[in-house]
Amino acid sequence: MKIFVCIKQVPGVSEVRINPNTNTLIREGIPSITNPFDKNAIELALTIKEKHGAEVIAISMGPPQAEEVLREALAMGVDRAFLLTDRAFAGADTLATSYTLSIAIKKILKESKERRNYLVICGAQATDGDTGQVGPELAEELKIPQITYVQKFELNENKIIVERVFRSEEVVIIESRLPALISVLKEINNPRYPTTSGIVDAYSKKEVVHFDAEALKPNKSKIGLSGSMTEVWKIFIPERKEEQIVLKGSKEEIAKELCKNLKNDKIL
Ligand SMILES: Cc1cc2nc3c(=O)[nH]c(=O)nc-3n(C[C@H](O)[C@H](O)[C@H](O)COP(=O)(O)OP(=O)(O)OC[C@H]3O[C@@H](n4cnc5c(N)ncnc54)[C@H](O)[C@@H]3O)c2cc1C
Predict the structure, then answer these.
(1) Would you say the CB of residue 6 lies under 6 angstroms from ligand 1?
(2) Which of 7, 26, 54, 176 has the smallest CB count inside 10 Å?
(3) Which protein residue's CA is at the shortest distance from atom 51 of ligand 1?
């Protein structure tokens, strides 16, 4: 069985800065990290491997420096890592990103004997783009079932049984045959730290294989900017309005004043 884990490199800060002229993220001088949800995806893949046996393959699409997050995945215990990097992939929206990830997965599967025995694990969302669309779109590209927002996972033969969080509070239990794609929530596990020997191996023994557009032979109209159906018109950080109002008077007067303020702010 093969388990593909999709990993995105994201800015390691809670407040991103935006270039107002180009509507793009300012990445200079900002440390990059593995998208936190993707660490949960790696942890789940490694747990499945330890329990049932599997080959765990990490894939990321991004600029050359995204190799760093793949090294970290290798250090955690992932078997193989692939970086999809090419100027032709730049400017991809979620649709072009998922298409590019899908052709890489198809290429890796084509080169192995296990073409239908696989699981794809994504994070529920990326902390920068935050659309949560890449997982579902990737499943559509691969024409496999998808289950999003998974908080519990079990594998039984080639069947998966998962708990999916529905409307933030309800939980539904879903069963699916493999191949399938799931996207995971942080509640699913606690990601392990890489060991010292894992880090040494990741940088000395293991390799990150680069796939460019020539290697993937994509439909050129489906990658990068030309494959992107969406266009960012404006990107901005919502202004924070922090105002403290101290209400004075008797309990009744304070309660009346509070209700009035809440009504004025259209909260009540
Ligand atoms: C017109 C347009 C232009 C853009 N141009 C750029 C650009 O030039 N550079 C840029 O960095 N971003 C660009 N973006 C943002 C880019 O589309 C998204 O960051 C990307 O497609 C992932 O979407 P997301 O962050 O919402 O991920 P989500 O859908 O929230 O991510 C969910 C999960 O999908 C997987 N995943 C997501 N992205 C990747 C990836 N790249 N590799 C592997 N797995 C992944 C991860 O498992 C992740 O946890 C652009 C977006 C638009 C609309």
Answers:
(1) yes
(2) 26
(3) 93
Q: Which helix (H) or strand (E) holds 38?
A: helix 36-52
Model-level pTM? 0.87
CA–CA separation, 137 and 97 (whole Å):
9
Q: Which residues contact 92 (CB under 8 A, 6 or more apart)?
A: 61, 100, 223, 224, 225, 227, 228
pLDDT at residue number 49 = 98
Ligand 1, atom 34, lies closest to the CA of 134
Q: Quick one: average pLDDT of 147-167?
A: 94
Residue 17 main-chain phi, psi, to 5 deg? -105, 145
pLDDT at residue 148, as a whole number: 97
Cβ contacts of 244 within 8 Å, gap of 6 or more? none
110: pLDDT strictly greater than 80: yes
Q: What is each CA distance from 31 to 6, 58, 59, 126, 252, in whole angstroms? A: 20, 21, 20, 16, 52
Give the dihedral of Cα atoms 134, 135, 136, 142; nearest 10 deg. 100
Over range 86-110, report the average pLDDT. Answer: 96
Instruction: Give CA–CA dist 259/228, Å, rounded.
Output: 47
Segment 169-200, tens digit of pLDDT: 899 999 999 999 999 999 999 999 999 999 99
Tokens representing 216 are 């993937």
| CA-closest candidate to residue 90, choices 131, 62, 118 | 62
Q: What gap in Å lies between CA 225 and CA 195, rounded to an integer?
A: 39
- Give all domains of the chain, ordered by start, each with its CATH number: 2-222 (3.40.50.620)
In which residue are the tokens 């390691």 written?
Answer: 12
Distance 165 CA to ligand 1 centre (A): 23
In short, whether 123's Cβ falls inside 6 Å of ligand 1 is: yes
